[in-house]
Amino acid sequence: MASHRKPRTSVLASPGGRRTAAGLTTAALASVTLLSQSADAAPRAPKPTIEEVKKKVDDLYHQAELATEKYNGAKERADEQRHNVDGLLNAAAKRAEQMNRSRHQLGMFASAQYRTGGMNPTAQLMLAKDPQQFFDRSHLMERLTGRQKQAVTDYQEQAAAAAHQRVKATESLEQLQKSQASLKESKQSVQDKLSEARQLLSRLTAQEKARLAALERQKEAAAKRKAEEEARRQQERERQRQQDGGGSTGGQTGGGTGGGSSTGDSSSTKAEQALAFARAQIGKPYVWGATGPSSYDCSGLTQAAWKAAGVTLPRTTWDQVKVGQRVATKDLQPGDLVFFFDDISHVGMYIGGGKMIHAPHPGASVREESIYYMPIYGSVRPG
């Protein structure tokens, strides 16, 4: 029997359905288009200019130098603590040896008295669970002979000294661990800053690198011009001093020839020796944390140069700036140390004419450069 049911008609097949489907499709496409346009319209960070890259790299080198000086200080403290620990451990070992000798002496007394019969005070001391209880019994001490008393006293003193040495060694070891942790942190900070600088430079095209080099030459030229101007002013001041003083230069503190007194001659000789050493290092690479002889960081170079002249300087820029006589920039003499930046993170050795010898930064070598290449913090005269 044939079915009288009407065939089912799809909604999409109906005219109204087709219009509905078309509307939905149009709306979906419009949404995708809008989303695509929104994504395209999202702001993208502009590529930094070469000037911005240079500033960033310079800042990273500066931060790396700051971290290097922290590393140098931490390493110096760690080396000192390690030396202290070695000394304390040796002292503790000697104390323990002396204590063992005292204990052996007591044991000999105890053995001898045990063989002769009776439990005398010395034997009681050696067999007591708590020696302090024995020592508290003064009436037993009174029965000991003078030699035995001295043996007991020696043992007490050596035992106390050994315990004290162990405490000091433990404290020094704890300080060493702290210094080593600080050393590790500073080392990682240096490496992170230098790695970031290398990554920035590696992204530059050949053309951009050429532009960066040109900017660097412009900065160097400007600093050189300022140094030359200052050198001319310095010469003029010197000529004026010569005229005012009738040719005498004795006792002067300015940027002239100096000298006059034996003390001044000695100081001048040391400065010349330090400068001779520094000049001999020109061309050697900057390596952070290095003190020579094949590479240097900034404070490592100045420390080594003045050491060659018989003058001991501290390791870090922060400590070197505290040594010697403070001098104004206009009164600089060859051999003086010039410090840079508000955080005193860089140092160079003045050679005259507004120039210095210094170890600049990673990737560069020890060289002569204008002291006006960086902001000057202040200067000192060692010796």
Along the chain, the helix and strand elements come as HHHHHHHHHHEEEEEE
* Low-pLDDT segments, ≥5 res: 1-5, 7-15, 18-22, 24-30, 248-262
Instruction: Please identify the structural class as seen in this structure.
Output: alpha+beta
Instruction: Give the N-terminus to C-terminus distance in angstroms.
Output: 125 Å
Main β-sheet description: 6 strands, antiparallel
Give the % helix.
Answer: 55-70%
Please provide the count of β strands. Answer: 6
Question: What best-fitting shape do the alpha-carbon axes yield?
Answer: elongated
Q: Helical region count? A: 10
What percent strand? 5-15%
Q: What is the chains' assembly state?
A: single chain
Written description of the protein model:
Helix content is 62%, strand content 7%. It has ten helices and six strands; from the N terminus they run ααααααααααββββββ. It has a six-stranded antiparallel beta sheet. Strand 4 and strand 5 form a beta hairpin. The termini are far apart. The relative contact order is 0.10. The model is unreliable at 1-5, 7-15, 18-22, 24-30 and 248-262 (pLDDT under 50).
How would you summarize this macromolecular structure in one to three sentences?
The protein has 383 residues and is of the alpha+beta class. Helix content is 62%, strand content 7%. A six-stranded antiparallel β-sheet has the order 1-6-2-3-4-5.
Notable characteristics:
383 residues; alpha+beta; 6-stranded antiparallel β-sheet; 10 helices; 62% helix; elongated
Task: Note the topology.
Blueprint: H1 15-41, H2 50-115, H3 121-127, H4 131-135, H5 138-141, H6 146-202, H7 206-244, H8 262-280, H9 298-308, H10 317-320, E1 325-327, E2 337-340, E3 346-352, E4 355-358, E5 367-370, E6 376-381
Antiparallel strand pairs: 1-6, 2-3, 2-6, 3-4, 4-5
Helix pairs in contact: 2-3, 2-6, 2-7, 8-9
